[in-house]
C-alpha cells in the first residue's frame, strides 16, 4: 500500500468515477484504474462497487477512506517538518568544530572537504587541542558545537579515557583509523607472520608523554604491562625514533604510510585494533540546526 495509491483512491471516492478522478489528478484513466486494482489486490478486499452510476465504496472502502485521510495528512505533516528542518539547517552559516592535534593535520581536511561539498556556504571554525579532556569539556560547556576524537567500542570512552562528568555526549563514527605497529627495517620480526602480543614482551614501545594519548591507550589494551614504555613525545618524534631503532611505535596508518613506502620503517604483522574517527556532541543540541548541519554534511 503506497501513498500515491491512497491519493488515487481518495480522488475516486471524491469525484465518483475513474474518469473524473483522472481529470482531477492529471492522470490517464487507465493509470487510475490500475492504481485502484493494485491497492485492492494488496489489501485482498474489494474497495468499490462499480455500476452504471459510478463507483461506490464498500464497507471496507469506507473504513480505508478514514485511514487514507489520516495517513495522507501525516505524510504531508512529515514532509513539511522535514522541509522546515532542512531550511533551518541551511540557515546555519558557521559551526565550531574541535579536533585532537594528533588527527587535525591528516583527518580533519577530509571532513572539511566533505562539508564544503555538501554545504558550500557553511563556515567551519576548527579548534585544535592536544588534550582530549579539554575538547570534551568544551563540547559539554557549549564552547564547541562538536569535536572529533579517536575511540573504539560501543560507548564513548571505551578506548580507556574518561568522559565528562557533566553528562554523557552523543557520538557518531565517521571513518575507520587503522593502526600499524612499526619498527626499523632490521627488526628481527620484520617479515614474520603470525605474531601475537606476547612475542613483544620485554621490547620497548615508544609512547606519547600524555598518558591519555589514543595510541598509548590502544597499546595498553593490546600489550598490557609486559612491554617497556619509552616516553617519546609527539607522533613525529615516535616515528623518527622508530626509524632509528630506539623502540617500536603503534601509530595510525596515515602517519607512517610515506615511511613504509620508502622502506625506512617496516610494519610488523600483528593483528591490531582499528580506531574510529568519532564525532561527539551534547545530547541537548542533537536537534539544533548547527548540529544537524554538521551531522548531515560530515556523514
From TrEMBL:
PROSITE patterns per UniProt: HTH_LYSR
Gene3D superfamilies cross-referenced by the UniProt entry: Periplasmic binding protein-like II (3.40.190.10), Winged helix-like DNA-binding domain superfamily/Winged helix DNA-binding domain (1.10.10.10)
Domain spans labelled HTH lysR-type: 1-58
A matching Pfam family: HTH_1
Signal peptide (from-to): none
Keyword Transcription regulation: yes
Annotated keywords: DNA-binding, Transcription, Transcription regulation
Origin: domain of life: Bacteria
Alphabetical list of CDD domains matching this protein: PBP2_LTTR_substrate (cd05466)
GO molecular function: DNA-binding transcription factor activity; transcription cis-regulatory region binding
Family: Belongs to the LysR transcriptional regulatory family.
Protein name according to UniProt: DNA-binding transcriptional regulator, LysR family
The organism of origin for this protein: Actinacidiphila cocklensis
